[in-house]
Specification:
Strand order of the largest sheet: 2-1-15
Largest sheet: 3 strands, mixed
Shape: globular
CATH architecture: 5-stranded Propeller
CATH superfamily: Succinylarginine dihydrolase
CATH class: Alpha Beta
């Protein structure tokens, strides 16, 4: 199946007003390093919006996913807390304050974990498929997927346009065998966006994995990846095991040690188990003109790759879809790391590979919690007809970015400490902010986005 007008659209997570450093994610070194420090929610959201503006001004189509309703008081109610909302906050603060960070988590900002996406040219029924990630490894993220499903149905709803273009599934079962972390472990490779491609599913563990070899959890399972591929009716899928060395070094997702787009897969030398990589690359080359770009450990150590988040850069074709003129949107930490900067300078001069430009963006507030530019976005390949069916409230132009920035400046705190989550007044601030976001986007267009609004 070929759709010559297809393009890749980035839907970034709009960082929510409860952005804080709770240190909740085992294996995420940045999260652990900055645990319990004060965060800057206003700065974080403005940095994220400026990254979206950067892509828009470069000529790319840009959308966003709204923040989830936080705190999620339904979780606290399920845990036995009762009464009016403010009373629930007070009771939790008094009896189990560690739960407040969980239910206030703004981690849905990392939209690469929101879902796995299969474009219509790769699915048997010709629809774009979405499966929210169950994120069961960490409690603060495991509560996200019901909200993610609601958001995806709001953004990608055929009711906003004639035709049935999208299929939003529920998450795969939240049991250990089916741990799923979304697009952070899935790469769609293709010759051109409108042509049939191959889904590369990277996993950290299967039924034979010995947990004794792992310092940190292997979050993605082979069983979950296969289940998602079946849900989507994926025409072509290849499965590849992440190296335990990478996981133990702090690469809790594949997108910390690899990034791919079009026919190019860029990865660190120690990203994958060697024999598994050879087999997977062979299978990929049988289906598309795969080009691999291996970053040698001698050039950029695994430690430097993880600290700088080199591989969590966005790898983009040119705005017109030319795969021979690619661009990296890299975190500013890459420019500040000597080894990484040197490698980037060298690679852009090497015309045997397609990366021609590197743009650096400041997303330090996100990076301090373990998420770079690629973590902040969900990639969705859409034809022109499908793009026209997307809820327009979630597609961006300069005016809407300005409006969202004004909303952030009005409602977000400059500083937020984990202790502030115990204040019922903060809860009321957040609810007011979400109410105003709905008014900004248009209540009719985003009806049902937030449960507390009915």
């Amino acid at each position: 199946m070929t759709n010559t007008t297809a393009r890749e659209v980035n839907f970034d997570g709009l960082i929510g007003p409860t952005h804080h450093y709770g240190g909740l994610a085992s294996g995420n070194l940045a999260s652990s390093r900055n645990a319990m420090r004060s965060s800057n929610p206003r700065e974080a959201a403005l940095q994220g919006l400026e990254k979206m503006r950067t892509l828009l001004r470069l000529g790319y189509t840009q959308g966003f996913l709204p923040p989830q309703q936080r705190p999620d008081l339904t979780v606290l109610q399920q845990l036995g807390f009762r009464g009016p909302d403010e009373h629930i906050i007070n009771s939790t603060a008094a009896q189990a304050p560690e739960l407040l960070s969980m239910v206030y988590s703004a981690s849905s900002m990392w939209a690469a974990n929101a879902a796995t996406v299969t474009p219509s040219s790769d699915s048997h029924d010709g629809k774009v498929h979405f499966t929210p990630a169950n994120l069961l490894t960490t409690a603060h993220r495991a509560i996200e997927h019901p909200h993610t499903e609601r958001i995806l149905r709001t953004v990608f709803s055929a009711s906003h346009h004639p035709g049935d273009h999208f299929s939003v599934h529920s998450a795969v079962p939240s049991i250990q065998r089916f741990g799923d972390e979304g697009a952070a472990n899935h790469t769609r490779l293709c010759h051109a966006y409108g042509e049939a491609g191959v889904g590369l599913f990277v996993y950290g563990r299967n039924e034979q994995t010995d947990p004794a070899n792992l310092t940190f959890p292997a979050r993605q399972t082979l069983a979950a990846s296969a289940a998602v591929a079946r849900q989507h009716g994926t025409r072509a899928a290849v499965y590849l095991q992440q190296a335990s060395r990478a996981i133990n070094a702090g690469a809790f997702h594949n997108d910390v040690v690899a990034v791919g787009n079009g026919p190019l897969l860029m990865y660190h030398q120690h990203a994958y188990e060697t024999a598994a990589a050879e087999q997977a690359f062979k299978a990929l080359r049988e289906q598309l003109p795969l080009q691999t770009l291996c970053v040698a450990d001698a050039d950029v150590s695994l430690d430097d790759a993880i600290k700088s988040y080199l591989f969590n850069s966005q790898l983009l074709a040119s705005p017109d879809g030319d795969m021979n003129r690619m661009r990296l949107i890299a975190p500013s930490e890459c420019e500040e790391n000597t080894a990484v900067r040197r490698w980037l300078e060298q690679i852009t001069q090497d015309h045997n590979q397609p990366i021609r430009d590197v743009s650096f963006v400041d997303v330090r507030q996100s990076m301090s919690n373990g998420g770079g530019p690629a973590c902040l976005r969900l990639r969705v390949v859409l034809t022109d007809e499908q793009l026209a069916a997307v809820n327009p409230a979630f597609l961006l132009d300069e005016t809407k970015i300005n409006q969202l920035q004004d909303w952030v400046k009005c409602h977000y705190r400059d500083q937020l400490s984990p202790a502030d989550l115990a204040d019922p007044l903060f809860y009321r601030e957040v609810m007011t902010a979400l109410e105003d976001l709905v008014r900004l986007l248009g209540p009719q267009q985003v009806n049902g986005l937030y449960p507390f609004m009915g």
